[in-house]
Design goal:
Blueprint (H helix, E strand, L loop, with lengths): L47 E14 L5 E9 L18 E4 L3 E8 L8 E3 L20 E7 L6 E6 L6 H6 L4 E6 L10 E9 L12 H6 L5 E4 L2 E2 L2 E4 L3 E7 L6 E5 L5 E6 L2 E10 L2 E3 L4 E6 L9 E8 L19 E8 L31 E11 L1 H5 L4 E2 L2 E2 L2 E5 L11 E3 L5 E7 L5 E5 L5 E7 L2 E4 L8 E4 L4 E6 L5 E7 L2 H5 L3 E6 L1
Parallel strand pairs: 1-4, 3-8, 9-13, 12-20, 21-26, 25-33
Antiparallel strand pairs: 1-2, 4-6, 5-7, 7-8, 9-10, 10-11, 13-18, 14-17, 14-19, 15-16, 15-18, 19-20, 21-24, 22-23, 26-31, 27-30, 27-32, 28-29, 28-31, 32-33
Bound molecules: CU-O-CU linkage (C2O) and copper (II) ion (2 copies).
One copper (II) ion binds next to strand 5.
Length: 509
Amino acid sequence: MHDMPDMPPMPAGKTAPSAALAPVHALPSGAPLPALRKLANQSRERGAFRATLVAQPHALELLPGTQTPFWLYGDALSTAPGSPIDGPIAGPLIDVREGDTVEIVFINRLPQPSMIHWHGMPVPPEQDGNPSNPVEPGATRVYRFTLPRGSAGTYWYHPHPHMLTAEQVYRGLAGPVIVRAADDPLAEWPERHLFVTDLKLAADGAIAPNDMMDWMNGREGQFALVNGARRPRIAVARDERWRVWNAGSARYLRLMFDDGRRFEQVGTDGGLLERPRRDLTELLLAPGERAELIVRAAADGSASTRTVLTAGVYDRRKMAMMHGSLPPEPACALADVEFASGVDTPGAGTQVHRALPQHLRTVASLGEPTAHKSVVFSEKMDMAAMHRPGASNHGMPAGMSFMINGASYDPARVTLTSRRGEVELWSIENRTDMDHPFHLHGTQFQVIERELEGVATPEPFLAWRDTVNVQPGETVRIATMQSMRGERMFHCHILEHEDLGMMGALKVT
Ligand code: C2O
Ligand code: CU
Ligand code: CU
C-alpha cells in the first residue's frame, strides 16, 4: 500500500522486544501549565472562521540535548522548513462559535496519507475525515462546514487513516476544538484547558513504536502530558471552568484530586448538562471523552493548599499475553494544583467566587426510538499466528482480531444502515474481557441505560455524548439520530483496536 515503517518481526515465543524507555524524570516537570496555542482566524467576516492547518514532521527537544521527531499540526505561518512550531505538543485550539462557517485548508506534509476528523462535531460526512477520504502526502484539501445552533461543546480533531490512526496520533497529531454558544450561562467564568495526551518515549529520544502489548491493550507510554507538559503546575485563585480532553490512545483518566476535594461537572462531550452534578470526588474519562468541570478556589481567608490532579487506578482489565489479565497500572499524577485563597488574587475587580446556575440549558430527550441497532464487540487472539516471525501487516501483528458484529473493519463493506432523521436505540454489547470506549461519528447521542450482570441501570441524567465506555460483559443502550446522508464510522476509541478492525461503517440513507 503506502511506504511506512514496519515493526521488527517478533522472535518466536517472545513478547515484543520493548525498546528501552526514557526514565520518567528525564522529562522536566513543574512548569506552569502552558496555554494552548490558538489557531488564528484569517477571516474578518462575521460568522466566518478561516485558517490553514498543516500536518508535518517537526522535531522538538524534550530530553535535554536530544531531538524527538514528532508529527505536529501547525498553522500556515509555521510551515517554512526548519521554522519552529511555537507551543506545546498539541494541535492549535480551534475556538469557534455556533453558527460559524468554518473553512480549514489542510496541507499534508507527512510521508503517509492523512485527513482531519472532527471528533464529535456534526459536520457533513464528506467533510468529516473518513478513512475513505484520504489526503495523499503533499496534497491539500479544504474542509468546510457550518456549526448549527445547539452544537456548542468541547471537541477535538485528529487523523483517521485506515490502519494508521494510532501511529499518527501517537506521533503527535491531535488538537482541541471549542464551539461556543451565544447564550452560554458560564461565558463569564475564567476557563482552563487540559488537553491530555500520551507519550511513549524511547531512551534515545525517539517516539517508541508500538509493541505487542500496545496493540493488544492499547498504547500507554510512560508519560501522560497535559498541554504537552509533564506534571505542570496550576494555580487556582478563582473559581474556574475546566475543559478536559482525554486525547490519549488508551489511558483511562479516572480524574480526582489527591486530597479528595470535591468538584462539579457541568458538561460532557457535547456541551453543558441540564444542571450541574455536584459533590463529585472522581470522574472517569475514557479515551476520546471530554468533560467540563467547575473547580473552586480556596474559601476566602483560608490558607492555600496544594494537591495533585491524578488519574487514579482504574482496572480496565488489560489482557496478559497468554491468558488472564494484567494488574491495573498505578495512579498517575497529571498536574500539581495550588488552591490559593482569594486574598492572593491579583487585580481589583477580579471575582474570586461565583454562583453556579441551577439550570444550565435544556437537554431534550430524543424521543421514542423507532429503530434498533445492535453492536457487539468481540476479539480473537491466535497466539501461534502472533508469534510467527515476520507476521505483521504495516507494523500490526497478525493473529490479533478486534471485531464488531463478528467482523473486522473492511473498507468495502457497510456494517449498519440508518435512515436520516430516525431516532434509533443502539445496544452496544461488550463480549470481550476488557473495557472498550464506543464512539459514533456525526452526531451526539444520549445514554439511556447500562446493563451489567442482568441489572439494567437507567442513566441518571440526560447528556450529549459521542463516546461511552463499555465494560466487559456490559451492554450500553443509547438513543441516537443521524441528520445527514452518507457514510459514518463507529468504533472503539482505543486507537490500536480501531486500527486492528474494531470499527464499522454506518450508511445513512
Ligand atoms: Cu476520535 Cu473515529 O474518532
Ligand atoms: Cu470521531
Ligand atoms: Cu477497544
